[in-house]
Fold these 3 entries.
Entry 1:
Amino acid sequence: MPSSVMSTPRMGRPPAAVSAVGLRKSYGDKTVLDGVDLRIPAGSVFALLGPNGAGKTTVVRILSTLITADGGQAQVAGHDLAAAPHAVRAAIGVTGQFSAVDGLITGEENMLLMADLHHLPRREGQRVATELLERFDLAEAARKPASTYSGGMKRRLDIAMTLVGGPRVIFLDEPTTGLDPRSRNTMWQIIRELVTGGVTVLLTTQYLEEADQLADRIAVLDGGRIAAEGTAEELKRLIPGGHVRLRFTDPAAYRDAATALREATRDDESLALRIPSDGSQRELRTVLDRLDSAGVEADELTVYTPDLDDVFFALTGGAAPTRAHRIEEDAR
């Protein structure tokens, strides 16, 4: 059984900005979430991956108090979700899959409207709106109708509006869907800057590269359950197929290496050896030490590890996993 993510933090572990145990949600006879546990350290990016219908948006809607869970417990920014929903809402920002921007008014007016909703004094609201519009490179377009903005500009305005209240935790539900590669990279930089400023981000995405680029930790959600969780590198090591390939130009060196590494698969035509490996530094050092002991040096060494695509398809492509793989931060 995985340890409770609501327990007292271990020595050396950062405090949790978001924690949940056993989140459950059903609609009629359809179970959407079937006991989801999460622990998101403060000041980090946590990515929730999963196919359509896996329950990603439902997790975000529960944690942002938009809907209530049927079971389980959760805390966000130190506040209990059930006991203090108003305190949770005051501490968070949410950007959904679809823009909340009102296209009939200007970007600046959208920002000032959000400031009014947060009950900021008029002068303070104007100051915050101006600063955020400049920060997100929207100052020149601030007084143009938002309907004239590009998709990337609307998404930047969306996040700027989310930041008006100074949230400590931000939920980004597929924030780059529909954006071109340039706009997506701009959004990635914005997210990195938010975390550098101390904000915690829960990101749901179907773009595996996005999770690989941004997330400190990743959870794969499938069938309403967490199928695996860990850093990108840790998740990749869960999937078989990783190996080290050694290539030689000297046939004698190749034969000596094959003798020293008897478990290796030989390719006599290309003078190459393939050794199963999880790609870790420890395993690589072991291979090199054994070659040194045999007095052999490879001319070329290549490490192959599965990518997040392999992880995603392995964990979500067939029947739901029978158990969750949970890689604790202090496992090593």
Entry 2:
Amino acid sequence: MNHQDIPPKPASPPHTGSLPRVPSGGNGSAPAPESVTWSQPLPEPPPRRAPNRVTFWKVFFVVVIVAVAGSLVWLAVWLNSSSGADKSAADAPGVLQTTATAPATPQPLPRDGVAPAAYAVGDCFKDFDPEALASTVVSCDTGHSAQLVATYSYPAAAAYPGADPLKAKALEACQAATLGPAANQFHLNYQRSFPSSTSWDSGDRRVDCYVTADTGNVITASVLP
């Protein structure tokens, strides 16, 4: 053992004059407490705040106002887009046709009881009556009294324009029609046909232009080129 590692004994007992005296008990000594607990009074919890009803209702009303405003904006956009689409459809240009299809009416001919909605540019009619609910379509190289030479079809969404504008549009269709050399062989007139308000409501959107002969079924050739 290294004796230099052993501390020397104190020269005198430690001074105890400043230590408190422990009162003696029955046996001359005080029993040590089993345990010592150091405690401090716990801070009281902060009082709970009552719900602020004014703030709640303010937030609620703000949310409602924002929702209503958003709905109104969406409705305005939807109505504007819908009205714009309807307006575009109504303002869309119609379709002018002055060229005969081949054949204009399904074969064989003659074909009786053809309704006006089924008339096609180039069709020739025997004993033609523009106000009739049906006509007889014949081959144009046989005697006939009228031929459909031009049509103008309004857009499906268009509003009824009235009789005078329809007459004017039918005249424009007649003026746009190009007739061939055979038209010079006959005494012909232009005749217009257009829908009434009742037929318009039923879906009729077409005005027609015919060349007609006043003397009956005397036309024996197509007057279109």
Entry 3:
Amino acid sequence: MKRRFMLALVALALNTTTIMAQEKTKQTAGRDQLGDFAPKFAELNDDVLFGEVWSRTDLLGLRDRSLVTITSLISQGITDSSLTYHLQTARQNGITRTEIAEIITHIGFYAGWPKAWAAFRLAKEVWAGDTTGEDARAAFQRQMIFPVGEPNTAYAQYFTGNSYLAPVSREQVAVSNVTFEPGCRNNWHIHHAEKGGGQMLIGVAGRGWYQEEGKAAVEILPGTVIHIPAGVKHWHGAAADSWFAHLAFEVPGDKTSNEWLEPVTDEEYGKLQ
């Protein structure tokens, strides 16, 4: 019965994966609002500031650019629609509700307490729909049939962020449901084997990423199947703005082992959209 269930799950999950390409940041606010009055300013705003500076993600990721920008605006006491826009952009670029609260608290000590209060008023509106902690975990659990499981403390040293582990089966093929909080990912690693081996992932809920060394990252959605041969250096984890869970199947082989390597840097991760 268990075997038929797992085979049916794999059959339903087979689909094609999508390669996500990095695109330039696009902005039209300058031309929309000042195109007739100040066309050169509008051009510099849309084409240079956003089209060129914000798009140099090989030098500084979008998440870090958002952090620098909102820090600069709050420090100057700018709490108008421009800060609202950049707070919204920061959320899209992966800064979480918990992180923005800590960021503004930190800024408050250097830029001034009243400025922090004003920024919190806008931030609360931008992140109003987000939940944190146990509420967020419980909400994500309702999206899938497999349990979130317990904190993945045994492997925490190999993850950036918090993850959870729930064994699904230990008969025939070892299967676990691994859940990642937004922004969480495991280190680069390699599954070794003299024969056979490797791993297979099936997206269960949320949105995540898989990347092999030297290749573009692949988006994982519910039903996406990822086949990882032995000997391939790779990582996988959640998108910056989404919880994520996948089933992990250990492919049988001879003399199998797992080699954990360096973490995925914020710069590498920040390039993903």
